Amino acid sequence: MKWAASLFAIAVAVALTGCAPMPAASTAQTDKPAISADILRFEIPADALGARDPQLSAILAKAGALAAAQKQPTTILVTALAQDFPYLNQAIWKGVPAKHAVRLSLENLTASARQPYSVSIKPTQGG
């Protein structure tokens, strides 16, 4: 049940970020890119994914809602095995209100052998 604690921590992080805008990073030089443009990133515990855990489904829906709440166009990147994309994508879209779906892009990246399953939310680049 180690993953339950991980899911709880993710849920707390999602709940705390809510719809609040992310603070701007202050740097001495404005020409340097930020280290990470991710709004939110979390790993998906393999055992929770394999069990189709209801808590994981709820967290994925909250991630979809968080992405939809952003003022700028947003990309959700899901990294997992191809057979898991239908479940993950459906769980994420459940949290997205229909009127906000236009500003979202959901991309799937097939995980390599040692790559963790993850979800990241970031501003859409070049659009």
Notes on the protein architecture:
With 127 residues, this protein is an alpha+beta fold. It has a domain at 40-123. It is 36% helix and 19% strand. It has four helices and four strands. A four-stranded mixed beta sheet has the order 1-4-2-3, covered by helices on one side. α1 packs parallel to α3 and α3 (54-68) crosses α4. It starts with a helix and ends with a strand.
The number of distinct β-strands equals: 4
Strand content: 15-25%
Overall mean pLDDT score? 81
The structure class reads: alpha+beta
Work out the helix count.
Answer: 4
Helix content range: 25-40%
Rg, nearest Å:
15 Å
Biggest sheet, spatial arrangement of strands: 1-4-2-3
Dominant shape: globular
- Low-confidence runs of at least 5 consecutive residues: 14-28
What kind of assembly state do the chains in view correspond to?
A: single chain
SSE succession: HEHHEHEE
How does the major sheet shape up?
4 strands, mixed
Q: Please give the alpha-carbon distance between the first and last residues.
A: 41 Å
In brief, what are we looking at here?
The protein has 127 residues and is of the alpha+beta class. It has helices spanning 2-17, 46-50, 54-68, 85-94; strands at residues 40-43, 74-80, 104-110, 118-123. 36% of the residues lie in helices and 19% in strands.
Would you spell out the secondary-structure blueprint of this structure?
Layout: H1 2-17, E1 40-43, H2 46-50, H3 54-68, E2 74-80, H4 85-94, E3 104-110, E4 118-123
Parallel strand pairs: 2-3
Antiparallel strand pairs: 1-4, 2-4
